[in-house]
Amino acid sequence: MAVLDRLETLAPIREKVEAGERLDFDDGLTLMESDDLLALGELADLARRQRGGGDEVYFVQNLNLYQTNVCRVKCKFCAFARTNKQEDAFTGTAEELVAEAVEQYEISKFTEIHCVNGENPHVDLAYYAEGLRALKQALPDVHLKFYTASEIHHISKLEGCSHAEVLQVLMDAGLGSMPGGGAEIFAPRVRALIAPGKEPAEEWFDVHDTAHRMGITTQCTMLYGHVETYEERIDHMLRLREQQDKTGGFLSFIPLAFHPENTVFERRGFRFTTGADDLKVIAVARLLLDNVPHVKAYWIMMGLPLAQIALHMGADDVQGTVVREKIFQAAGATSGTEQKIPELVRFIREAGRVPVQRDTLYNELRRW
Ligand code: SF4
Q1: 164: CA distance to ligand 1 center in Å?
Q2: Which residue among 67, 74, 157, 203 is best mutated to probe the pocket of ligand 1, counting the most ligand atoms within 8 A of its Cβ?
Q3: What is the rounded CA–CA span in Å between residue 27 and residue 284?
Q4: 0.70 cut: is pTM over it?
Q5: CA distance 115 to 176
Q6: How would residue 264 be classed by pLDDT, with cut points 50, 70 and 90?
Q7: Domains in the chain and their CATH numbers?
Q8: Concatenated DSSP letters for 294-360?
Q9: Using a 6 Å CB cutoff, which residues line ligand 1?
Q10: Tell me, what's the pLDDT at 79?
């Protein structure tokens, strides 16, 4: 009887998915409240395939770099940020950045550098532009995916100029595209609890809106598994969908599970999200975000075994080799920071899918 009830609850949503109709807020909530993981996953995979998805699973060979971990904001979920006076605070020079990148490039020939930082009040726009310029000069073929919307907003406030002006300077210096961090959960109630010093959601959207209109593609994210409600998760995804309808510049959605270690939440008894919740978020995101091309199962965050299952529940990207990830490691991730390409290829193949190495903009580089 319980099984029948569950099937009936999801039946109207399945009809909409099969008809290619857009799902609404109530549908999203019904999906999020369902504990029928297999049905959710199957529905999400169906939606993905109906929109043209095949067996390909994408990954990129990339390097994570950090210019500074000094941050004025103090988000309560963050284990990465430091104040300028703390012993392990760092603010690297352009030369140091280039030296680190070139050293790693000799080993792994990555095609992308992903860089996010704290909101450092002691450096200016010229500092960031110099770093980009130096990297572009040293590694002209490498795509620079740099700076979250929160960082761009922070720099624009420091400089007293618009988001567009900051982005133009960074573009001229070599910026290729932007990661999706800083979104957290858009609901003001949640932002006030977990990141009271961070800009309101409207500023995050304005940066992405501006970037898209200037031809800069971006990613989008959601940090879940802390104090947010299901309603707030769905609201978050639908706001992203609305933005994508306007500008179409999000390449992928990356759900980020909250990692409590070394944060105030750990002392308050918060725990890691469960695998069931991680998979549910992937599936619901794939169903609701009908206009965002890709959903990532970020293996650094969820671990490779769970990411393999996520590939059958709506995800079609595992991010990449990700050498030297620091943010999730600081907050207790245990999945390591690096995968060699043969291991990623094996992991994708053993999930029954076709590994495709891509560049940042999803151009196919090699089909394995
Ligand atoms: S999440 Fe970002 S903005 Fe917030 S404290 Fe950490 S580094 Fe700073």
Answers
A1: 22
A2: 74
A3: 10
A4: yes
A5: 12
A6: confident
A7: 54-367 (3.20.20.70)
A8: EEB--HHHH-HHHHHHHTTTT--EEEE--BT--HHHHTT--S-S---HHHHHHHHHHTT-EEEEE-T
A9: 71, 73-75, 78, 80-81, 118-119, 150, 195
A10: 86
